[in-house]
Design goal:
This protein is of the alpha/beta class and about 400 residues long. The chain folds into 2 domains: about 50 residues; about 300 residues, 4-Layer Sandwich (Purple Acid Phosphatase, chain A, domain 2). About 40% of the residues lie in helices and about 15% in strands. The strands form 2 sheets. It has a 6-stranded mixed sheet. It has a 5-stranded mixed sheet with strand order 5-6-7-9-8, with no helix packed on it. Strand 10 and strand 11 form a beta hairpin. Helix 1 crosses helix 3 and helix 10 packs across helix 11. The model has no long low-confidence stretch (mean pLDDT about 85).
Length: about 400
């Protein structure tokens, strides 16, 4: 059929085949089994025919079906990031996302005479990372076996401090076990990929078991456990940390979902896993904001991390005040420095001092985590570091206090 004798049906077929081959005229001609020159002539003729401009209803409907199928596939991919994983794969209910604080955290009983509600803050565990003592003067060592031992020490020490060193008539109504991110070392740097003790999935399962054990022990000791969770920057599976979908590209978030499923039928343990980077909750009316802290960057000479942290806290308080999400105390990890103030608590780390800190001449920081009490009348009262090394320092014999006499 010559281009001059092209029928409307043949014109539509010519343009359809051209579209199917993404405008490649040579490929379209081959698919029809005709010379390229002939196909080019047909295209020119088809484009000049007014009948081609009138869309075929069947083709139009088929195009719309293809568009909708594409949109559906995209929507399904987005859904897989959050709801599908939580509801279908892991099998969680929607209750995990709600911060309906347990009654024991909301209001103290009229006859309350205890010390308050304790919070044990666990963050920056860096599970799976290896710290070589030979590269940092022997001041620290870290691997999965040591991480498990420090987890046990953290729980045992917190229980000892709260039961043997703090007087709380009637015990405690429960404990907050805050999880602040960077739970795994992750593969975000080449040096970590090369030196981590194992692949991240294996490490994640080992950590899930350790945190499940810790939650179980705390529930057995204190009766109730509230677990607010936020993700860090080390657990991501993207090159850079994301603002959109931050949690859904984080192994921290996946870890929390596994733990929530593990305790779904245990009324003693309640998880709060928000989809965003911050978790807001209250203990006896004292409002806490839990975040990881990687959004605050920089340092200021002698005061080190305090500069960017305090500035970041000021900006966040201002922002939250504008949207009705005020808080009294911000909790964060990330900096691996234990700082316990009234308006701000920065956590230490389970990992402790490492090669990065040593090579940058950062001050030595032992492995430790934060512990404090929230009283219904006085807010934050007792605060203490939970040291994660079981070493005992021996000092020369002396009285309970000593001083040097002036010459």
């Amino acid at each position: 059929m010559s281009a001059h004798n092209l029928t409307p049906e043949a014109a539509r077929e010519t343009l359809r085949v051209l579209a199917e081959n993404d405008g490649n005229q040579s490929a379209a001609a081959r698919s029809l089994g005709i010379p390229r020159a002939t196909f080019v002539s047909r295209v020119k003729a088809a484009e000049t025919m007014s009948v081609v401009a009138a869309e075929d209803p069947a083709e139009k409907l088929a195009d719309r079906v293809r568009e909708l199928e594409t949109e559906l596939r995209f929507a399904a991919k987005e859904q897989l990031d959050s709801n599908y994983i939580k509801r279908k794969i892991i099998g969680l209910s929607a209750e995990v996302e709600k911060c309906d604080a347990p009654k024991w955290m909301v209001r103290a009983h009229k006859s309350f005479s205890g010390a308050g509600v304790p919070t044990l803050f666990a963050s920056d565990l860096h599970w799976g990372e290896v710290v070589d003592p030979g590269q940092i003067g022997g001041v620290n060592q870290f691997n999965v076996a040591i991480a498990n031992e420090r987890m046990r020490t953290m729980v045992d020490t917190a229980i000892d401090l709260l039961t043997n060193h703090v007087k709380s008539d009637g015990g405690y109504p429960g404990i907050v076990f805050a999880l602040g991110g960077d739970m795994v070392s992750g593969d975000i740097h080449e040096e970590l990929v090369a030196t981590n003790e194992g692949e991240i999935m294996k490490i994640l399962l080992d950590l899930c078991g350790a945190l499940a054990w810790a939650s179980e022990v705390l529930a057995g000791q204190f009766g109730n456990v509230f677990v607010p969770c936020v993700s860090g920057n080390h657990g991501r599976n993207t090159h850079k940390i994301r603002a959109k979908g931050r949690n859904f590209t984080s192994f921290d978030w996946l870890l929390y979902q596994f733990l929530a499923k593990r305790f779904e039928l245990d009324a003693r343990v309640k998880f709060f896993i928000p989809d965003g980077p911050d978790a807001l909750y209250s203990v006896y009316g004292h409002r806490y904001l839990l975040t990881h802290g990687d959004q605050f960057r920089g340092g200021d000479g002698m005061i080190g991390a305090l500069g960017p942290i305090i500035r970041g806290d000021h900006r966040k308080r201002s922002r939250n005040g504008q949207i009705g999400m005020q808080y009294d105390t911000m909790l964060m990890g990330h900096w691996h420095q234990l700082i316990q103030l009234q308006r701000l608590i920065v956590n230490g780390s389970l990992k402790g001092y490492d090669e990065y800190a040593f090579s940058n001449n950062f001050p030595f920081e032992p492995p430790r985590q934060a512990l404090w009490l929230t009283h219904p009348n006085h807010g934050i009262t007792f605060s203490a570091p939970v040291h994660l090394e079981r070493t005992v320092k021996h000092h020369a014999e002396s009285g309970w206090v000593s001083w040097k006499e002036a010459a």
